[in-house]
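Q: what does this look like with adenosine-5'-diphosphate bound?
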Amino acid sequence: MTSDQLEHIQHTKNFVKQTLESAEGGHDWFHILRVYNNSLLISKNESVNDYVVALGALLHDIADSKFYDGDETIGPQKAREFLFKINVDSTVIEHVVKIIENVSFKGGNEAQSFSSKELDVIQDADRLDALGAIGIARTFNYGGYKNRKLYDPSIPPDLKMTKEAYKASTAPTINHFYEKLLLLKDRMHTKTGKQIAQNRHLYMEGFLKQFYAEWNGKK
Ligand code: ADP
Ligand code: NI
């Protein structure tokens, strides 16, 4: 990478850290840092543009629509303005914006309108952070943030939600495991991503087994 590119990445880190100062615990700077590090790790086995991967990973949740009344235009717009201001090349800006627009799961029943190897890497890295011990912690933190029930046996998971229904759902947090988290291991793009996802998936299955055992009064 050129020294200009390294400088852009450093500026972007500072910008994201500052912007997400008071973000929800599962979508804060540390989530971004984990996704950034996992993206770099996955990239080692892929032929991608590392500069685009770095900027995309750092900016992917700069204004998550979940925290902006469902508005999906704010994140891409904020990223575009920032990258323009620090003089990033317009082709790179457009690629990063496409990545931000397409990275989210949104129920998993929507067709994705754009694809690139760089998006694949970042999407895998973001999905890894939704799995395993961190994934469980983030999910219950988000549920608490939204005042959701932990679990309600009378409200079954819904796997056929449209993007709108997924976004509007107020279901118990346990349902999110079936509606998203347990589906992710089969939707990974990269070899590295698939391998790590497999382990984290098994860990979550163990967690759920223990959860139900305790729920049902087992010792
Ligand atoms: P999306 O699911 O829209 O793609 P994210 O990928 O940003 O959104 O979700 C990141 C994390 O936020 C999830 O992996 C999960 O931990 C938490 N989260 C999102 N939606 C829910 C939900 N309905 N219930 C519990 N946690 C959620
Ligand atoms: Ni994310």
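The CA atoms of residues 56 and 212 lie 38 Å apart. The first helix runs from residue 3 to 19.
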